[in-house]
Design brief:
2-enoyl-CoA Hydratase, Chain A, domain 1; six-stranded parallel sheet; two-stranded antiparallel sheet
């Protein structure tokens, strides 16, 4: 009789069986959440990326680069309740997306108790504008752009007064959030939204980095280094105001 392999509680395979492949947690996290790691225990700063189109209640085609808002929300909750995380850096390069999903993320970011800084790289268009201003302080790259325009609907729209009233209410929600979290006035913001002739067959305004700062939407021109330095400065202030001995 051929000798049998001993098994002391370990899984063994015969030469004809395929080896068991253990999934890499970082790869799984990247596929599900767009992040290499959900939280890094060795860092007190959590970096959240919002890239591509903000996907909301409808699943977008697979060829679209998207950020799923149901993936971002638990990351923000985890960063808020993790005592090791003292600040959140939000990197934006988005063309916009679902209005309610974008507002949900904006409200989540603005309600965090820990210091937050946003950095617009490439673009922060449409519903990306409220997300960009939701933090305590915002930066934009000099070559980045932001498109400000009224809310637009996709698909079939029932042409009744109630539909236009609903659309106006949604627009008021976006406008109010932007003006409450930045230095731009409501009149100036609406003027930029309704400007004609700049966008082909559309209305709105495209602002390049310095323009976004001049109008008061974004706080400052800068990149990753400046955003990180500002966040660390805010963390030091956060530590000085934090009650000693934990949450009371």
């Amino acid at each position: 009789m051929a000798p049998q392999a001993e098994n002391h509680g370990e899984y063994t395979t015969s030469p004809t069986e395929s080896p068991v492949t253990v999934p890499d947690p970082s790869v799984s996290s990247l596929e599900k959440f767009g992040q290499t790691q959900m939280l890094q225990d060795d860092s007190n700063i959590y970096c959240l990326t919002i890239i591509g189109q903000v996907e909301g209640h409808y699943v977008l085609p697979p060829q679209n680069k998207t950020t799923k808002y149901e993936h971002v929300i638990p990351q923000l909750v985890a960063a808020e309740q993790n005592e090791n995380i003292e600040g959140v850096l939000i990197i934006l390069n988005t063309v916009g997306g679902d209005v309610e999903a974008g507002l949900a993320l904006s409200e989540m970011i603005s309600s965090l108790s820990k210091p937050t800084v946003t950095l617009v790289l490439g673009g922060g268009h449409s519903i990306g504008v409220p997300i960009a201003v939701a933090s305590d302080y915002s930066f934009i790259a000099e070559t980045a752009s932001m498109t400000v325009h009224p809310i637009r609907l996709n698909g079939l729209v029932i042409g009744v007064p109630q539909s236009f009233e609903y659309l106006e209410r949604m627009q008021e929600r976006v406008t109010r959030f932007i003006t409450q979290h930045s230095r731009i006035s409501e009149g100036t913001l609406r003027e930029l939204m309704m400007k004609t002739g700049e966008l082909t067959r559309d209305i709105g305004t495209t602002l390049i980095g310095p323009d976004a700062v001049e109008y008061g939407i974004i706080n400052e021109i800068g990149g990753v280094g400046m955003a990180m330095a500002k966040l660390k400065e805010m963390i030091e202030d956060y530590r000085s105001r934090k009650p000693k001995g934990g949450i009371q």
